[in-house]
Amino acid sequence: SRRYPMFSDRQVVIIKEAQQMRDLDKLAQYVEKPLPSTVFIIAHKEKKLDGRSSLAKLIKDKGEIVSTKKMYENQLPEWTSSMVAAKGFTLDPKAMALLIDHIGNDLSRIENEVDKMLVNLGSRKQITEDDIEKYVGISKEYNSFELQTALARKNLSRAIQIISYFESNPKAAPIQLVLPTLYNLFSKTYMIFGQQATDERTVATNIGVNPFFVKDYMLTAKNYGFNGTENALLLLHHYNLRSIGIHDAGTTDASLLKEMVVKMMN
Prior knowledge:
Number of helices: 12
Radius of gyration: 23 Å
Number of strands: 4
Strand order of the largest sheet: 1-2
CATH topology of the largest domain: Zinc Finger, Delta Prime, domain 3
Order of helices and strands: EHEHHEHHEHHHHHHH
Largest sheet: 2 strands, parallel
């Protein structure tokens, strides 16, 4: 960072994963007398920089501290779509759901996976489910999104088939990722009962889902009714506690999921 830039007025120096540095405060020597031609960035992830430290006080005096919160899950589709569009491509709605459901709100990982797929698209301009399966490694037939669809349709045999796949492939869909997906289905469905709208686009706007998927939520409302939806939410809470060892003596994830979906559909 003490070097002068070549062929430009400024150079950028980034310290990544600064939260892992044991002697982070030693950076204060540079921050106190920074090189005017250097843009010096300290990327401190996971937690905030201690505002009481000498380094933090110097940065406030000499530069800027910018804090960013993790993006909410309901913001991920729009962010992902915009990110892909900025690269000159589009993402099929179901492919997007698969990607987000699998990764969650790790934005850098989402972009890395997208970049990996774009390299392999050739002349095509749209990322599809097949690309997700081939390059990200998510089965397009056996995933938590397809389990959600099976539950919406009250297709117990299909739900058990998907859970059995999870049992044989534990990394495909850990229960800690599956339960939030199912909670999203039933919590959004629960919202449908509190409104007068019946047309798909209005319902989608009111409950905050992509219009492409709203039929699943409306079908869930029809198949489960108010009481069934409320029961599903209570079961999700119960089995979430059991999945972390509360009131449970080591039941496997697959057994918990199978038991839960049977109770939901009966």
